[in-house]
């Protein structure tokens, strides 16, 4: 009996099949690209470039520039905190978050604040403290956590304010809300760093 020696092409095909099977078995975590969204999941509010799942106890708000009518940010807000989300055009295989982290750190320190980088659920994140003035004129400090996610030709920046910015261990539900976000980049050519357009659904609450 003769045994055929496995060729390099056979070995390569077997390895590719093994890699594909392993990739298929791996769980998919968000935020998601609209073209790779797994079946099922919650219903989401379609805001154009962002699809956001309603979150119990949190109100969906849109920050709108009254001069232009353009949406500047999408927010989920509750009594104890808020998430502010913005999506931007990015290189196909780039790491825009590395550049943005450095820019945020520089701007924060230039304004008298402090910033520290740490590993979080979505990778590197920034913990910032910025000196501010209250409506009554008193000096205060505003904490924030800035999370960035690099996607296929898009970048999502989520900023946590309030309690979830201070208590990492108690912010899982807020992070879950970020993980359910879907980004729709679109096929049109855009400059790197250009905000992806957000549309306002009827009945949405606007904030100037």
Question: What do you see in this structure?
Answer:
- The protein starts with 7 loop residues before the first helix and ends with a strand.
- The longest helix is centred in the first third of the chain and has 18 residues, at 8-25.
- The model is unreliable at 18-27 (pLDDT under 50).
- The relative contact order is 0.22.
- It has a single domain (33-207), classed as Jelly Rolls (Sandwich).
- It has helices spanning 8-25, 96-110, 163-166, 172-179; strands at residues 32-33, 45-46, 50-52, 59-64, 71-78, 81-89, 114-120, 123-133, 139-151, 154-162, 182-183, 205-207.
- The protein is an alpha+beta fold and 208 residues long.
- Strands 7-8-9-10-6-5-4-12 form an 8-stranded mixed beta sheet.
- A hairpin with a 2-residue loop joins β9 (139-151) and β10.
- The protein is globular and about 60 Å long.
- The protein is built from 4 helices and 12 strands.
Helix/strand order:
HEEEEEEHEEEEHHEE
Coarse structural class = alpha+beta
Poorly predicted runs of 5 or more residues? 18-27
Largest sheet: 8 strands, mixed
Number of helices: 4
**Span between termini:** 81 Å
Q: Class in CATH? A: Mainly Beta
Q: Report the mean per-residue pLDDT as an integer.
A: 85
What is the overall silhouette? globular
Please report the total strand number as a whole number: 12
CATH fold group: Jelly Rolls
How many domain regions? 1
Name the CATH architecture.
Sandwich
Radius of gyration: 21 Å
Strand order of the largest sheet: 7-8-9-10-6-5-4-12
Which descriptors would you attach to this protein?
12 strands, alpha+beta, globular, 4 helices, eight-stranded mixed beta sheet, 208 residues, Jelly Rolls, 22% helix, four-stranded mixed beta sheet
